[in-house]
Every structure is written in C-alpha cells, then in structure tokens.
C-alpha cells in the first residue's frame, strides 16, 4: 500500500484479527472532523485492502461523499460511492457510528444504524484473510479533529 505508507496520518489505530466470518461486525465510533478524510481499512494477510470505507468531509470544494474501494495487486481498483452522505453536516460536531457487517457475498455498511450500501467482495479477497482493521485520519489542517471513541469487533 504505497500510497498509505507515504500519506501523512495524524491519527492511526488498528486492531489485529484472525479473519472475519459471516455475521461479524466492525464498529467505529468517532467524533467527526470538520474537513479531511476518515478511513477504515480491512487489511488482508497479503497486504491487500479488501475494503476501504472513507467518509470524506468538505472534500474538493465542499463536497461530502462516502468512498469505497479495494487495494489489490499494488493499486487501487475502481471505486464506488454510496448515494447521499449519511454523516453530520460540516460544522456540526457529533458522534458517528460506522458499522460494517460481513454478509454472504458483501459487506453491509451502516452509518448511525442506518443501512447505507453494500460492497461486494472483490478479487477473491475473502473476509477470512483479513488480519487487521485500521482507522485513520488524514488532513491535520482540520480545525476540529476527528476523535476515535471505539474501534471494536462484534460477533
């Protein structure tokens, strides 16, 4: 993940896992930033990213969107965005709950307990191969920083 290694993170947390199974969920609870990138990475045993969930706040000219992707064979694949932006508006400081649940053929992504979208497994990157869950924040120019409250795995 060359791009990740070169990025300037101001926060980075991770938890080790020994693969994920159908029905398991990862929950991230945090205070939202006023700008920048908050991201969750599901990193496999080969260093690939089977899921990259990335709510982008005030990104590229006041645009908010949820960006989803996979990092495979040394490069990012075709990205997907979810309809709408189910996260707090800029300038509103609140707690965000992001839950990602493993389903039969996809990840179900929920924001504040609202189902947002599904992201199909790609390139044979099985949830069983996931070895760590990372939560990162980019953009140390944000005037209100993101604050991690919980990063947990639920069975």
UniProtKB/TrEMBL annotation:
- Alphabetically ordered keywords of this record: Lectin
Residue ranges of every copy of the Galectin domain listed in the record: 12-154
- A molecular function (GO) term: carbohydrate binding
Q: Which Pfam families match?
A: Gal-bind_lectin (PF00337)
> InterPro entries from the xrefs?
ConA-like_dom_sf, Galectin_CRD
What is the superkingdom listed in this entry's lineage?
A: Eukaryota
Record protein name field: Galectin
Q: What phylogenetic lineage does the species belong to?
A: Eukaryota, Metazoa, Porifera, Demospongiae, Heteroscleromorpha
